[in-house]
Amino acid sequence: MKSLNEIFNSAIAKQLTRLIELEEYTDYKNAYNKYLVFLQRR
Length: 42
Fold this sequence. Notes:
flat, mainly alpha, 2 helices, 79% helix
């Protein structure tokens, strides 16, 4: 069974390919990293 992280990462990767060249990429990445930390602390 895939971990939640793997499923989430594959979905996120598809979105990231569209966001890579946008200015909000950095903000998006920061929010994603904070979300990963949140998941690990639960």
